[in-house]
Write a structure and sequence with these properties.
alpha/beta, two-stranded antiparallel ribbon, 6 helices, globular
Amino acid sequence: MFRSFRLYIGFILVIGLSCKNNPTTSTTPTTDTTDTPWTPPIQIPTLSEFDAQFTVIGTEMTIEGRIKTNSSTLFNSVLAANAGVATVILENVPGTLDTDASFAIGRAIRSNGLATVVPAGGFIASGGTDIFLAGVTRTISGPNTTKQAGLIAVHSWEAGYTRGSDLPTSSPLHQPFLTYYSDIGIPDSFYWFAINAATPDTFHVMTTAEISQHGVVTTTTSKVTGW
């Protein structure tokens, strides 16, 4: 997973699971698996290391790969060329190299009234999770006969030797994230949960209880047999 964050005061911050190294990809979440959207042990799919690709079939746009600086421009271009798109499917979006870009995609999703879906077998984390949360409706699909339910992961960001989870809540470094979540209608509580759920070099796969508690999904279609 990768995440970089250009803070508004003008320098680059390396955030979360940055381009230093790939994080630990444990096949079990950091919490008990008795209340999760999968049948333990979960299987973390191979994390995409390719730049994000945007493909459209009918009314659905699929994103797969890591977000980078030009990804928001590509997203907007594809969306403009496909006015019928109503749903964004996040297939395997393990993070971002530029948080400004993932925030821009999320804001475009919200302003255009699009739905977001993590499909069965899908995986999102870090900046991918931020994009998913922008959906006007948000669904996690699965499991089905061949794939486990889609997985959503979170963790703390990191800037040099500074971790979001180590900062006081009054730190201005939190504000760009809090502003983004406010813009897309997500409560501050999700941000504080996410940065304390796992260290930057690993991730926490959210349980069903956490998904419900923090309003991550909006539709009952994600409450399928086996959850």
